[in-house]
Automatic annotation (TrEMBL):
Pfam families: TLD. It comes from Entamoeba invadens IP1. InterPro entries: TLDc_dom (IPR006571). This is TLDc domain-containing protein. Residues 64-203 form the TLDc domain. It comes from the Eukaryota.
Length: 239
């Protein structure tokens, strides 16, 4: 049977072990607190950086207003011999379908189509004649007998300054796809054809039907059967 002294030593040893365990636990808790504080500071810094970055992003309306053709307004005025325009269609906010663009350009004249690619190429067409009503179904049609029709390129693969391409004949001009066409949006006779996905292309026959173009690749750097992606289409009505 242990003596009183041995019992006290045993109790003291147990207390020391408990104290050691408590100190170890406190050390672990302290390390976790420090880690959490560091993590929280890192998160706060990341949130702060993201907030600063977001404040530098222009509002959506501003992004809509930033159209790449605007710096070339003087050139477009010269091409059309007109002074003012109204943007009646923007694929970013109005929808990128043949139906949406047909709905706003039919029964109008002096309509300009401006196409922007994801590689920064900007080109388009101008129709002086009144554009007929679109077809609900089918393949669509070409607008005919438009002596004022032309194509242009504002920023292209090898175009150093804006160029205008007049039609050699007035038989066909703007291509109006039917409202239910899900593959193509708008086009021009033997010129450009805007696809709804990654299927837009420049016709290799363009130099045969238009003045002022010797190399069909000067617009986007390629021609059919190679295709490219269109990022935006706008329709302007000039007066």
């Amino acid at each position: 049977m242990p003596s009183k002294k041995e019992e006290l030593y045993d109790q003291l040893s147990q207390l020391k072990n408990k104290v050691t365990q408590i100190e170890t636990n406190l050390s672990l808790i302290s390390s976790r607190v420090i880690h959490n504080e560091i993590t929280q500071k890192d998160l706060q810094k990341q949130i702060s950086d993201i907030t600063i970055h977001m404040t530098n992003i222009p509002p959506y309306d501003e992004l809509i207003a930033q159209k790449t053709f605007e710096p070339f307004t003087d050139d477009l005025k010269k091409f059309t011999e007109k002074e003012k325009y109204e943007v009646v269609y923007d694929s970013i906010k109005d929808g990128f379908t043949s139906h949406t663009i047909n709905n706003v350009i039919q029964n109008k004249n002096n309509v300009m189509i401006v196409v922007e690619t994801n590689n920064g190429n900007v080109f388009g067409s101008f129709s002086s004649a009144v554009i007929p009503n679109s077809e609900k179904t089918g393949y669509g049609f070409y607008v005919t007998k438009d002596p004022g029709f032309f194509l242009f390129c504002l920023a292209g693969k090898s175009v150093l300054k804006p160029k205008k391409y007049t039609k050699k004949d007035t038989m066909y001009s703007l291509k109006m796809y039917s409202d239910d066409n899900e593959e193509f949006v708008v086009g021009s006779h033997c010129g450009f054809y805007v696809g709804a996905t990654r299927n837009s292309f420049i016709s290799n026959k363009m130099p045969l039907f238009y003045n002022g173009i010797d190399n069909v690749d000067e617009i986007v750097g390629m021609h059919f059967p190679n295709t490219f992606t269109v990022s935006r289409v706008c329709a302007l009505v000039w007066s």
